[in-house]
Write a structure and sequence with these properties.
Blueprint: E1 7-11, H1 18-28, E2 32-36, E3 44-50, E4 56-64, E5 81-82, H2 91-99
Parallel strand pairs: 1-2, 2-5
Antiparallel strand pairs: 3-4
Length: about 100
């Protein structure tokens, strides 16, 4: 399944919800290096609440995803190699981050 490639994942604060879960799975399975900034988090199911006056509110529930170490991922996934947001589109700096320089 494409094991001939060296995979890397570029993430940041805008990596949230299902993309946050994907990042956690990518990390747990050691598919490659995670580069960028800590993810934005999220991945708890949404709990809709209807108040007595008919107002509806949606909040994160306590039904959250965890990683293989049984740690919650709601507050984000840390990266292996930090890269400033300004450098996300700088090919040289991306290559250096991939190489671990």
């Amino acid at each position: 399944a494409y094991t001939q490639y060296n995979w890397n994942l570029l993430v940041g604060i805008n990596t949230f919800s299902a993309a946050n879960l994907f990042t956690s799975i990518f990390n747990d399975l050691k598919l490659g290096k995670i580069i960028g900034q800590k993810t934005g988090g999220g991945m708890c199911s949404v709990l809709p609440i209807v108040l007595a006056d008919g107002t509806t509110v949606e909040i994160s529930s306590n039904n959250c995803s965890i990683n293989l170490d049984l740690n919650e991922i709601e507050s984000g996934v840390k990266v292996d190699e930090i890269l400033n947001y300004d450098d996300f589109y700088d090919d040289d700096k991306l290559i250096n981050a991939i190489k671990g320089k």
